[in-house]
Amino acid sequence: MQISSRFTIALHVLACIAVFEKQLKVTSAFLSGSVNVNAVIIRNILLQLKAAELIRVERGTGGAYLEQPADEISLLDVYKAIEPLEKETLFRFHDNPNPRCPVGRNIHGILDQRLLDVQNTMENELQSMTLADILSDLTTKLQKEKKE
Amino acid sequence: MQISSRFTIALHVLACIAVFEKQLKVTSAFLSGSVNVNAVIIRNILLQLKAAELIRVERGTGGAYLEQPADEISLLDVYKAIEPLEKETLFRFHDNPNPRCPVGRNIHGILDQRLLDVQNTMENELQSMTLADILSDLTTKLQKEKKE
DNA sequence: CCCTGTTGTAATTACCTTCATTACATCAAT
DNA sequence: ATTGATGTAATGAAGGTAATTACAACAGGG
Asked: Residue by residue, what is the 3-state secondary structure of A14-68?
């Protein structure tokens, strides 16, 4: 099972806002064109990013803007804004192990901590990367493009 | 989006096999009773664990057995046996970013490496834990049960 | 004040994955 | 041959993803 593409879409959206917000009005239609998914999907993602206070969206006139500096928006911030993980655990657990089996009645307690460790490790890695890193990679790539 | 419960089911199954294989015939019906999911689900998981050479399954007579020592079966081995992500990545990517947008035509290349780093970090953590660790936790818990 | 462009939001649809369930062929030992 | 188990296919329900249509709410310009 994979993590939904809405996460990478959100990163794409944030990168677009950072790059274009000074030059033009970054609307859901514009973002829809760059990401190439339906504008309603974009708008829902914008709502989630706004709820997490990562961006600001102008209601009537249109346009999205970063609400925090790029180096303070970590990939974990975006991940948590987008992924509505039930009970916050990455790993789903089978519901009703048999309490009359010594393994069945203990497996949940045993695995919970270890799987949480795995999840925390992953989230720490996500926290170590910021939108600024993405933007830095991007300018590097764009400069390479110019040379050719 | 969460990782399928088939992963924790597989760990439950392996723990049961390790605990019971010397005492009784560990059949899919028995495992189904301990895990509390349908026997066909168990059988399919057993097939995947067998394909990964983690267990052996007796065809006509029935019964599953560990094919490797518990301290050589890492949680990553189980994860890879169960989750059919072989060629795919943990993070799904939106398909067709607009190549005429400077962000759109570069976002994939930029994010790929960073998301792969995150995935590798998670997998390394999974590799550091083995079935023997789970069994050790289990015996500790069972001894505590006895005291009460 | 109304028109226009945009956001916020609901509803519908199609598709995919997970898991439960039924059914049955295959197999090994007695 | 009978028995008890595995291997495997097919179907259905439930839930999530994403596309799409539709429209109310809103802000600014003419």
From this structure: HHHHHHHCCCCCCCHHHHHHHHCCCHHHHHHHHHHHHHCCCEEECCCCCCEEECC
pLDDT (average), residues B85-92: 77
Q: What average pLDDT does this structure show over B25-39?
A: 96
Long-range contacts of A93-99 (CB under 8 A, 24+ apart): A93/B5, A93/B8, A94/B5, A94/B8, A94/B9, A94/B12, A94/B35, A94/B36, A94/B37, A95/B5, A95/B36, A96/B36, A97/B12, A97/B34, A97/B35, A97/B36, A98/B33, A98/B34, A98/B35, A98/B36
Q: How far is B123 from B127, CA to CA, in rounded Å? A: 6
Q: From the Cβ of B29, is strand D under 7 Å away? A: yes
What's the mean pLDDT in A40-44?
96
In angstroms, the Cα distances linking A2 to A58, B106, B119 are 33, 22, 11
Summarize pLDDT for A74-128 with one digit per residue, the tens: 999 999 999 876 567 899 999 899 999 999 999 999 999 999 999 999 999 999 9
Interface of A with B in 10-39 (CB under 8 A): 11-12, 15-16, 19, 33-37
Residue A52, min C-alpha distance to chain B (Å)? 18
- Residue A28 has a CB neighbour count (10 Å cut-off) of 21
Would the pTM of this model clear 0.70, i.e. be above it? yes
The mean predicted confidence, pLDDT, of chain A is: 93
Distance from the A96 Cα atom to the nearest Cα atom in chain B, whole angstroms: 6
Tell me the pLDDT of chain B averaged across its residues.
94
Domains and CATH numbers, chain A: 5-147 (1.10.10.10)
pLDDT at position A87 is: 60
Quote the CA–CA distance of A103 and B141 in Å, as a whole number: 10
Whether B14 contacts B73, CB under 8 Å: yes
